[in-house]
Amino acid sequence: MSRLFHAGNRELQDRYDGRRVADTLEARRRAEAFLPEHVALIATAPFFFLATAAEGAVDCSFKGGPPGFVRVTGPAELEFPDYDGNSMYLSLGNIRLSPSIGMLFVPFDGRSLRLRLRGRAALVEDAARLAAIPGARRLVRVAVTDIFPNCPRYVPDLAGGAASPYLPREDGSQLAPEWKGRDYIRPILPRDDPHRG
């Protein structure tokens, strides 16, 4: 029984012969508690992307602050401040109606760990806690349910001004990503995978 995949994911995994890879990645790469490298990434991140949805209103938002503005508060819990904004409350309004969220931490250096999180969010409006965080209007507490890496394959190195070396070439061929060469992945790649070899 998968915790990460629903019927829509499964239908496509089966259509394109990807279920073996998906199940193996879930078993080997998904975590239920933060590892030290996850905590280090989150503690130094100056931004992340937040996905929310409610009543058909899907939103993806950039959330930024000084490094350390997102704090890991438990083995699978974190919180971040909501700062002054544009008064639309797209993300927070979605959270009020549907607390399921996604978070994506990506350092655009072309090589560092990237992290996806899924969880359930709640708004916290505790005056004493807010007073201790400069600029915080409220806090968002997240009970994290799924922790898993985001593939680096197409992430550009923005600081170095370099595109990902894995982008398709003019002839459509691509470099094989490191993960497809792992001994537990290579034999189970989909039948039509160009890197199956």
UniProtKB/TrEMBL annotation:
Family matches, as Pfam families: PNPOx_N (PF01243)
InterPro entries according to UniProt: Pyridox_Oxase_N, Split_barrel_FMN-bd
Sequence ranges assigned to domain Pyridoxamine 5'-phosphate oxidase N-terminal in this UniProt record: 36-137
SUPFAM superfamilies (UniProt xref): FMN-binding split barrel
Domain of life: Bacteria
Protein's name in the database: Pyridoxamine 5'-phosphate oxidase family protein
Species annotation: Paeniroseomonas aquatica
